[in-house]
Amino acid sequence: xxxxxxxxxxxxxxxxxxxxxxxxVVSIEEREIAGSRQRFYVLRILDSERRIMVxxxxxxxxxxxxxxxxxxxxxxxxxxxxxxxxxxxxxxxRRYRGFMDKIKTGSIYDVxxxxxxxxxxxxxxxxxxxxxxxxxxxxxxxxxxxxxALDRTEDSVREEIEAIFTTN
Length: 168
What we know:
Layout: E1 14-17, E2 21-33, E3 36-45, E4 51-55, H1 59-62, H2 70-81, H3 92-104, H4 108-124, H5 129-150, H6 154-167
Antiparallel strand pairs: 1-2, 2-3, 3-4
Helix pairs in contact: 2-4, 3-5, 4-5, 5-6
């Protein structure tokens, strides 16, 4: 249940950058840093003009990875359908930090758990402003990656996810 990480991307490839989502490799550039030449992936986060430079040699370390494959998609939907989610009586800010740590891993499995847990929590009580934003962020990250992996529109993926939460 771990997404494939690879160390070599080509220009035009899609990659997932932790906590930012799916990006396109727009170029691979060489720069001089501290007296040595290094190669960098230049990424453009989809649906934004944000650009990120990642040293090629550190791509695995920072968590840059491939978009999930079809076999992994089923696992994501299984995570979203899981009903036995344990909630403890943590304060919202402690929950928030735990959820944020999961999002920062870059693992779509962890992000799917955050989405599921926040959605389930929302049915039991009001979410804090920060939790609401995190719910939207997690939903956006999961929807974008699944839409690309499934070659479907984001709207159709979002509707499928919403149906899971409204029927479970």
